[in-house]
Design a protein that fits this description.
Blueprint lengths: L1 H10 L1 E2 L5 E2 L1 H5 L4 H15 L6 E5 L4 H11 L3 E4 L12 E6 L6 E6 L9 E9 L3 H13 L2 E11 L4 H5 L6 E11 L2 E4 L2
Parallel strand pairs: 3-4, 3-7, 7-8, 8-9
Antiparallel strand pairs: 1-2, 5-6, 9-10
Length: 190
Amino acid sequence: MLALKKKLESEAKCLPNGIIGMSSFLNHQVDAPLLKEVGEEFARRFQAKLPTKILTAETSGLLPALSMAMVLGLPMIYARKQRPVTMVQEPYTAEAESHTKGGRIRLYVTPEFLLSTDRVVIIDDVLASAVTTLALVSIVKQSGAALVGIGAVIEKCYENGRQKLEPLNVPIESLAKVISVDNARLVLAD
């Protein structure tokens, strides 16, 4: 995705601890035309897998997941970081370490929206160490649904998350790959 790569090259910031700041176009201020393209590209890559639900974790995964869900006309579920009082059924839960929030987070999904008959694609903003993605995979497994794909807007290849996901034997798609951060500059794969 050329537009995404241009945004990364011109607006992304290299922050401490390997964090890539994308607040000007993805994680705080949103470039809506770019997110529309992101959703269309994810839909193109995963449509043949016949998904019935898109799953993500709040907060940063919401926009790309919703964009894809809108293109395909599918429901999008997001794993909550706090269990609301309205979640009356015992939820599916999983824990993950958060690099950007610091510490461990617990994710919650109500069983009424994630069924054993569903075909799920997990979408997130960044694939780095894969801990959040693996927590979402755990939730999919708890539901008995079929995981049919994993997508990330940006993949930080140097954190090896993809290698942790490959044993799942599902397509793993990233729209832009950062192979390193060199002298406060992102180095993107071709």
